Amino acid sequence: MSPDDLHAMQLLAELRRLADPDQPTAIRLIALTGDGDYIGDVKLPTPGLAHTAQAVSAVADYAARIPEDFAPNQGADGLDPLLIAQLEDHCIGLDPDYLMAMAVIDPGQAVAAFDEITDDGSGGAL
Q1: What are the angstrom distances between the C-alpha of 49 and each of 11, 23, 25, 55, 111?
Q2: Which of 3, 24, 34, 119 is 20 to 30 A from 87, alpha carbon to alpha carbon?
Q3: Angle 46-50-56 from CA coordinates, rounded to 5°
């Protein structure tokens, strides 16, 4: 099963949480693979359908405001480039390769080095 198929199954499972058996069915959604093979389906009552539309609308609005959060991951190492940039900004002055090598040898020393660099002088982190 492909990752896309698994995501489709997860979506169907979440939609089933909105399916109230005491309500009449408003629509039936069917999920198919990209090749047209059946994955599954869900029946939604009107309230579940309305909530789903609102949730999708909220995510679409978020994607329009912050498109970089929805860009394909460009990192060769599989890490989110935005997350890496935020970590690098937080660790200014600290060589991450050195820190990781130190962590292999002595995790406590690596934590102490990190704390020393990120300490704001008041006992708290920057």
Answers
A1: 14, 12, 10, 10, 49
A2: 3
A3: 145
Residue recorded with tokens 């909530």 = 51
**Which range among 15-24, 54-63, 78-87 shows the weakest confidence by mean pLDDT?**
78-87
Q: Residue 79: what pLDDT? A: 62
- Domain range annotation of the chain: 3-70, 72-126
Q: Which amino acid is at 45?
A: P
Q: Please choose, from the candidates 10, 17, 13, the residue with its C-alpha nearest in 3D space to the C-alpha of residue 47.
A: 17
Instruction: Count CB-CB contacts under 10 A for residue 42.
Output: 21
Q: Is the pTM of this model over 0.90?
A: no
SS (H, E, C) the chain: CCHHHHHHHHHHHHHHCCCCCCCCEEEEEEEECCCCCEEEEEEEEHHHHHHHHHHHHHHHHHHHHCHHHHCCCCCCCCCCHHHHHHHHHHCCCCCHHHHHHHHHHCHHHHHHHHHHHHECCCCCEC
